[in-house]
Amino acid sequence: NRRAQKCFSRCGFTPYGHLKKDGYSFILMELHRKEWEKRQV
Questions:
Q1: pLDDT, position 1
Q2: Cα dist. 15→5, 22, 29, 41 in Å?
Q3: Which of 24, 27, 32, 38 is deepest in the core (most CB within 10 A)?
Q4: Residue 37: CB partners within 8 Å, gap ≥ 6?
Q5: 1-41, pLDDT tens digit by residue?
């Protein structure tokens, strides 16, 4: 879902991997605590 990926990216999440399962493709995203704290200031 490109729309969700864009939303997560705007919130500071970054992609770090791909997963394929049962014919579906997933993009794994992460947000580190320090990056999140920077955005809260």
A1: 86
A2: 9, 21, 4, 23
A3: 27
A4: none
A5: 899 999 999 999 999 999 999 999 999 999 999 988 988 87
